[in-house]
Amino acid sequence: MTLSRRRFIRNAAIGAAVSSALPLDLLAQISEPVRHHVAGASVHAAGGPILLNSNENAYGPPESVKVAMRQAMQLANRYPFHEYDDFISRVARLNRVPEHQVLSGCGSTEILKICADTFLAPGKKLIMASPTFEAIGFYARAKNAPVENVPLTKDYAHDLSAMLARVGSDTGLIYICNPNNPTASLTPRKELDAFIAKLPASTYVLIDEAYHHFATSSPDYVSFLDAPLQDPRIIVARTFSKIYGMAGIRLGYAVALPETIQKMRPWQLQDNVNMLAALGGVAALDDEAAMKAAQARNARDREEFMHQAAARKLTVIPSYCNFAMMQTGRPIQQVIPYFEKNNILIGRRFPAMETYARISFGLPEEMQEFWRVWDKMPAA
Questions:
Q1: Do 329 and 353 contact (CB within 8 A), yes or no?
Q2: pLDDT tens-digit map of 353-365
Q3: Count of CB atoms within 10 A of residue 262's CB?
Q4: 3-class DSSP state for residue 117?
Q5: Which residues have CB under 8 Å from 105's CB, separation 6+?
Q6: Backbone phi, psi, residue 342, to 5°
Q7: Count of CB atoms within 10 A of residue 200's CB?
């Protein structure tokens, strides 16, 4: 049974969900890279900066998705009740689960916020890697929940032993981004399974699979959705922003067992999937050929990036994503403005990796320009 807007209102009434406002300092931290990106995007349409800063799909959505979204504009004056139900049904079918095990999000970022709202509180802490995608840390602090950051291993995997040592009865949620952003690295599935088996029954684990489609060729990577979920503590988040090229449309979802989804649902934003997102999302899932073509294209782009880096004797963390983390040999706070002056935006600063640059893969001609500008950079 799908969740229409009317049932959403009824279910939301089960648990009151009053979200804390973000403190101004946290809002500033969140909005800084966003402002930077938007400023670049506003002039990119006029031939402005090359955008290699936000792990977007530079090629955009498949043609089938563009057609569906253009058709959706004809229905822009209507609420997407039916289309929303179709989207949930399609996601459930893809992942071989009942529809009540799917929760939609305004991007997978909303799923992260829902998890923070559901499982964290002043007495319930979050454990996360450092560095990793920061958003859930911001949401946790907005709830006045403690946040413990655990450095990655020397191989840039999640340090599961160190994380386990921090777990106690006060641990509400553990966040695992796999493959990890910003390092593009993997934590092997067998190690994750062993880790989760040792956790208390009261500790939930959010597996962020935003970059799932780029890692499927690795024997160390197995999605938590490849087999039916059995553990109520596990929530898996997916997004349409990466392989499907729909970052600007904002569409994502979570899959978990019914009792877990029921805990999360009161915190879900009402009408969080718009008409373009719903129809575009279904079209994206229906066009498996386009998805596989995007996977192959990204693999070629990634291989070429590694080839160019190797030719310059640069150290790059092995990548399983649509971006790579590269050692620059100098403070990143010098590298970012240098590229910006040369009309290229690259990834933001990550405090645990002060000399590394996160480079999203752009179009071939954009990457040629990136390397041309790199080669002109003064010696460290």
A1: no
A2: 999 999 999 999 9
A3: 15
A4: helix
A5: 111, 114, 237, 251, 252, 253, 254, 268, 272
A6: -100, 20
A7: 10
Q: Which amino acid is at 198?
A: K
What is the total count of domains within the chain? 2
CB 328 within 8 A of CB 338: no
Instruction: Classify residue 264: in a domain, yes or no.
Output: yes
**Burial (0-12, 13-18, 19+ Cβ within 10 Å), 219:** exposed
Asked, for residue 23, whether it belongs to a domain, the answer is no
Query: Is residue 100 located within the same domain as residue 113?
Result: yes
What does DSSP assign to residue 19?
P
**Residue positions counted in the chain:** 380
Do 192 and 67 fall into the same domain? yes
- Residue 211: what pLDDT? 98
- Model-wide pTM > 0.85: yes
Strand partners, 345: 51
- Contact in structure between 307 and 338 (CB atoms under 8 Å): no
Q: How large is the average pLDDT for residues 129-151?
A: 98
Judge if 49 and 164 occupy the same domain: no
| Amino acid 46: pLDDT | 53
Question: Where residue 152 sits, what CATH number does that domain have?
Answer: 3.40.640.10
pLDDT at 17: 35
3-state helix, strand, coil in the chain (%, to 5): 45, 15, 40
Q: Which amino acid is located at 112 in the chain?
A: L
Which is it for strands 125-130 and 147-151: parallel, antiparallel or unpaired? parallel
Q: How far apart are CA 194 and CA 142, in angstroms?
A: 31
pLDDT digits (tens, 9 = 90+) for 182-195: 999 999 999 999 99
